[in-house]
Amino acid sequence: MPDQFLFAVEVTLNGLMAGVLYALVALGFVLIFKASGIFNFAQGVMALFAAATLVGIMDGQVPFSHLINSIFGTSVHHFGWHVPALLAILLTILVMVALAWLVQYFVMRHLVNQEPIILFMATIGLAYFLEGFSDLMWGSEIKTLDVGLPQGGSFWIEDLTAGLGSDNFYGFFIDRLDIVATVIAAVLVVALVAFSQYTKQGRAMRAVADDHQAALSVGISLNFIWVLVWSLAGFVALVAGIVWGTKSGVQFSLSLIALKALPVLMLGGFTSIPGAIVGGLIIGVGEKLFEFAIGPLVGGATENWFAYVLALIFLVFRPQGLFGEKIIERV
Amino acid sequence: MLDQAEGYTTADGRKIGGVVMEMKNITLKFGGVTAIKDISFDIREGEIRAIIGPNGAGKSSMLNVVSGFYVPQEGEVWYRGAPRPPMKPYEVARQGIARTFQNIALFEGMSVLDNVMTGRLTHMSAGIGAQAIWKGKAEAEETANREVAEKIIDFLEIQSIRKTPVARLPYGLKKRVELARALAAEPQLLLLDEPMAGMNVEEKEDMCRFVLDVNDEFGTTIALIEHDMGVVMDLSDRVVVMDYGKKIGDGTPDEVRANQEVIDAYLGVSHD
Fold this sequence. Notes:
Chain A contains 14 helices and no strands. By secondary structure, chain A is an all-alpha fold. Chain A has one domain (8-317). Chain A starts with a helix and ends in a 14-residue tail after the last helix. By secondary structure, chain B is an alpha/beta fold. Chain B has 2 domains: 1-88 and 189-272, 3-Layer(aba) Sandwich (Rossmann fold), CATH 3.40.50.300; 97-186, Rossmann fold (3-Layer(aba) Sandwich). Chain B has 10 helices and 12 strands. Chain B has helices at residues 59-66, 89-94, 112-118, 128-133, 137-155, 171-184, 201-218, 229-235, 253-258, 260-267; strands at 8-9, 15-16, 19-30, 33-44, 48-52, 74-79, 82-83, 97-99, 189-193, 221-225, 238-243, 246-251. In chain B, a hairpin with a 2-residue loop joins β11 (238-243) and β12 (246-251). In chain B, α3 runs parallel beside α6 (171-184) and α5 crosses α6 (171-184). Chain B starts with 7 loop residues before the first strand and ends in a 5-residue tail after the last helix. The model of chain B has no long low-confidence stretch (mean pLDDT 87).
């Protein structure tokens, strides 16, 4: 087989893996949107906050240490212990649930029966607040996150495929982290779909998304559902934060992955879980292949804009996305 | 005819039981506006109780007090023989009081069946994990709840639209779906806020039949607000008449029809 073709296959495979990572972030959006009618602009920042909290707990960092030091003139930074990854993840989940409760108590509770756009604006405010709060709590420096996920190329796959091409071809390079991420995403999707489709709480969530007043009248507690929804959002953010944080470090740019999720959502449709996955894969593969084939002709760096242009084209010709609900309503 | 403890027998021979809900001297204000002024009345087991009155009389406010959406400034709500502390609407719903809304509040994105199933939420108790994998108690519970929902769907003759998203239904059918959702909760008290508003004659007749059948078949106590006087007089056992936030009449349809104050309110007399 010609090396050029094999290279294209490798690019495609890596595109698929990158797509899974995009889908993982987009999933957080879709879930919250489906379940509560809120487009959660803060999803990316929540991923950053979750990852920073996880690192902070694992390293035994003192929260708000900069603040404490500058007020009291002390110099505390670390408790001096290290928490095992699994325990730290559990503790981080607790922190995210606490955050969910705070969001419900200080923000959502006051916005009963408001338009979706109002709720959306609230999440923008939340995003900015959380961004600053995260820096204040854990510091803004770049941190490395290692919860024991495998990283680096898979030699097994390389060895297995090395024989396909000529002597210059060393086999497909596939990051083991990407493979793990794919498995995690699959498990997450199955669990979340089961939850939202088959459980009482899932049905109640969808009810709240549709109509607050009606939800109240059938005995659903809005406050409880909101804590639940934001806890779920926090959990999905944590998963995305772990995977992305392991890949590229815990830093501010982590919160920008949310921007990459937007074109994925426009492609897949805001209300479809399969849509988020297919959309993620299309964009992942699309931008890698485009860079591979067309990139050199236009000076490269097409990955920065390809996804957005694709999303723009979709907005013009199929605004509800590939799998989104077609908007049919009687007037 | 009205005996506090015993109840009474209606003209068509149904036995009406003791008091289910009693409103005692309810006053409700919005800032400087008094929507309800010192109103008392009761609702008895098994009866169809109507609240009527001109626009802006405070009927919907009254219903909202009963269902917990509004908390009155003065007065007490007695439910099943005990005063009810101020409650959130969802807590009231869990006590067995279901309602419909004047301007239909359905879950538009869900199918008719799913909407009706939300009415069963208060009857589900299986663990969240069991529900997600559909095993054990959850399976039996879901089957039982589904059965109730299907029975009500059959009862209200909306089988043909079971799987249709509610957003696509015409107005009259939406009203019926809302009734189905309220019934699915198997309420002890059913509140209907203008169940026939905006319907044509045929739809109204259907709805009347359903309200009577529900009362007859399930023995559900019903309190309803309605504008159409003909409908009210045919349907209800006892009627409360409100005007400008005050109660001006209370009794059987015949008694109310003969009440001079009621006649004035409906035909119009200058208020001085």
